[in-house]
From TrEMBL:
Residue ranges of domain Integrase catalytic in the record: 1-150
Taxonomic source organism: Leptobrachium leishanense
SUPFAM superfamilies tied to this protein: Ribonuclease H-like (SSF53098)
UniProt-listed Gene3D superfamilies: Ribonuclease H-like superfamily/Ribonuclease H
An example molecular function term from Gene Ontology annotations: nucleic acid binding
Protein name per Swiss-Prot or TrEMBL: Integrase catalytic domain-containing protein
Domain of life: Eukaryota
GO biological process: DNA integration
């Protein structure tokens, strides 16, 4: 589950709720007037998921305020839904929803009006087209995976009518449908090829291993991030949540979630020239300067 926000107003709606089934890849796109609260999200979820497909076993989402609230957690716990949240600074954990967001945005971008105020009318057709497209991973459309048959498609030719405006609308609909299906199929093939080109097997860490943590998504208290270290730590691994997510023992003053994707970690490599030492105890430089008897001793310490 995810949200597409900050859209131009269309029939009073400015937000799209994206709901993707991880197995079949079937998606539902719900237009909303605004970002809902946790209490408002529950009836929306019941109307668009539970009513159609039943109660899911698990929900994967980001750490938005709606999803981490006590109200939403309590609702899911009472109906038997396990909650999983995306790793910190790694939206690919919820990749199905992220990819669905990109697909529906691409569809709306191609066919929306200049005023961009008709995307609510195009959203049902976007959902129908995406759910009817063949998935590269399964070889079937999401519709076929769920219902066992492909949905009826638009006829090759529409019969002539006595209403010119209707003929024009049907012809435009047929052209749009064909363009969308071709674009989705080509996009899926290109994206898979590019992604596989850069993928490699993720390293495996054990509990207790020390790793470096990438600092590219962490705001360090330094004058310039350009000169800041690219990795911080090392930190000990507390547990392995799944093959690509690990929980780290972060310092208490870090106000961030401690679960990270494996591509943000780097192993701590030690040899006979590099060893991990405990940090030395702090030295009060101010007291040493005030006591003249300690100056020669401090000088010797600094030299050796």
């Amino acid at each position: 589950m995810d949200f597409i926000v900050e859209l131009p107003e269309s029939r009073g709606n400015t937000v799209i709720l994206t709901i993707i089934d991880r197995f079949s890849k079937m998606g539902h796109y719900v237009p909303l007037q605004k970002l809902p609260s946790a209490a408002e999200l529950v009836p929306i979820f019941i109307a668009n998921v539970v009513r159609i497909h039943g109660v899911p076993q698990e929900i994967v989402s980001d750490r938005g305020t709606q999803f981490i609230s006590g109200f939403w957690r309590g609702f899911c716990k009472n109906v038997g839904i396990d909650l999983s949240f995306s790793s910190a600074y790694h939206p690919q954990t919820n990749g199905a929803a992220e990819r669905a967001n990109q697909n529906v945005e691409k569809y709306l971008r191609c066919f929306i009006s200049e005023q961009q105020d008709n995307w609510s009318d195009l959203l049902p057709w976007a959902e129908y087209a995406i759910n009817s497209a063949v998935s590269e991973s399964s070889g079937h459309s999401p519709f076929f995976t769920v219902y066992g048959f492909d949905p009826p498609v638009l006829p090759v030719m529409f019969p002539d009518s006595t209403i010119p405006a209707l003929d024009k609308q049907l012809a435009s609909l047929k052209e749009t449908w064909g363009r969308v299906r071709r674009a989705l199929e080509e996009s899926s093939t290109i994206q898979k090829t590019k992604a596989d080109r850069h993928r490699r097997q993720a390293p495996v860490y054990q509990v207790g291993d020390r790793v470096w943590l990438s600092s590219r998504n962490i705001k360090l208290l330094v004058p310039s991030m350009k000169l800041a270290p690219r990795y911080i730590g090392p930190y000990k691994i507390l547990r392995r949540l799944n093959p690509v997510s690990y929980a780290l023992a972060l310092p208490p003053h870090f106000k961030i979630h401690n679960v990270f994707h494996v591509n943000l970690l780097k192993p701590l490599l030690c040899n006979r020239y590099t060893k991990v030492h405990a940090p030395p105890p702090p030295v009060s430089v101010w007291r040493a300067r005030r006591n003249s008897k300690l100056r020669p001793f401090c000088a010797r310490l600094s030299r050796g």
